[in-house]
Structures are given as C-alpha cells and as structure tokens.
Amino acid sequence: GQNIDQPTEMTATEGAIVQINCTYQTSGFNGLFWYQQHAGEAPTFLSYNVLDGLEEKGRFSSFLSRSKGYSYLLLKELQMKDSASYLCAVSPLVAGNTPLVFGKGTRLSVIA
Amino acid sequence: GAVVSQHPSWVICKSGTSVKIECRSLDFQATTMFWYRQFPKQSLMLMATSNEGSKATYEQGVEKDKFLINHASLTLSTLTVTSAHPEDSSFYICSARPGDGYTFGSGTRLTVV
C-alpha cells in the first residue's frame, strides 16, 4: 500500500522559519514533490527531490532521505501570503501512467 | 512549459443533471490523464486514470457509471458527473505527466443544488 504522513496543521509567526515534515511508505519511489495550494486553487509546484540531500530554491528548501522515507519542506522568512496548504506527494514509479500519491496536506497559518 | 487547460472553472447545477469537465493538454500529448477530487480541508484523492483510446481505470469506491471518463484524443480528456447530487459537490482537478514532473489543470468547483 501507499502511505504518506504529514502534520495536519501548523502555525508560525511572520518572519520566522517553519519545517513541515513528511514520511512515506510506498511500493516504489521515483521522486518526492512538494506543492503549495491555496483554497479553491490548483496546487503550485514548489520542489522535487529524487536523490538524498537538500534542494534550495529561494525561501524554500526541501530535504530527502530515501533510506528513512523522510522529507521536509523548510520555509524561511515567512510571509502572510505563505498561509496555505502544503502537500507532500510521491511518484511511486517511473512509468508515465503512474499518478502522484498525496499526503493529506499540512495547513499552515502564518500569524503576525 | 506544459499546460493543461481545464474548463469550466466553476459550475452550479441542479440535482439530477449531468456536468462535463474538460481537460486539454495545450502543448504536449497526454496519453494519460489523472482525475482527482478534493473535498474541503482534505487532500487530493485520485478518482481514476484515463488512457487515450482505452477504458479508464477507477480507484476503489469510485462509481464508474456515475463518473464517466472519456479520453478520445491525445489532447482531450473529459469527466462527466452523471445524475449529480449534493454530495458530489467538490473540487475536481486533472493532472498529466509530460515528463518527470506533473502538471495540473486549474480545477473545477462543482456545486450541486
């Protein structure tokens, strides 16, 4: 089976740093994605990790440990507009007809 | 980049009627399209996978006779919600995989009254 776990909700202060964790157990692994989603909108791609290590992109960084089945998304210098749901998703196989498997999402609230 | 155009963005329909949602790949050929449903404050749940020229594959618990999927060409996949009921009100979104990444449509907010 496929199982992806992430916290349901988090709250952080404007200007701070927040780390959203994700653990996964999937039948295969061909990469882990992080998406940002505002209510009523499509997910927006944030990052992709297929090898172990840290990927940095501006205020956002994502880390992957394949041996531990673990990833995190790090958001720095939080802004109010970062209040959204953050979705961790795994691509189980290389084949093109394989859908992403999503975690339940983490709703992040950024407060002043 | 690869774009999937989804229409309509929102629709309100009466209970018992049918609604068709279209997803078009604009600059690539999508042999496969994934259809997701998302209820408020929940994540995306895969409903079905459509394949060009063949029958769709439905996830467990999704009624294939209620959610009709057609993938007649390499650039168009449609989802028809038949005999819609208020419990079908949800956010429906399609996704394709043009390469290693995935691209999403903009989503359709369906409200059944």
Explain this structure.
Chain A is mostly beta strands and about 110 residues long. Helix content of chain A is about 0%, strand content about 55%. Chain A has no helices and eleven strands. Chain A is globular. The model of chain A has no long low-confidence stretch (mean pLDDT about 95). Chain B has about 110 residues and is mainly beta. Chain B is about 0% helix and about 50% strand. In chain B, the strands form two sheets. In chain B, strands 2, 4, 5, 6, 9, 10 and 11 form a seven-stranded mixed sheet that branches. In chain B, strands 1-3-8-7 form a four-stranded antiparallel sheet, with no helix packed on it. The model of chain B has no long low-confidence stretch (mean pLDDT about 95). Chains A and B meet through strand 10 of A and strand 5 and strand 9 of B.
Quick overview:
The complex is a heterodimer of chains A (112) and B (113). Chain A is an all-beta fold.
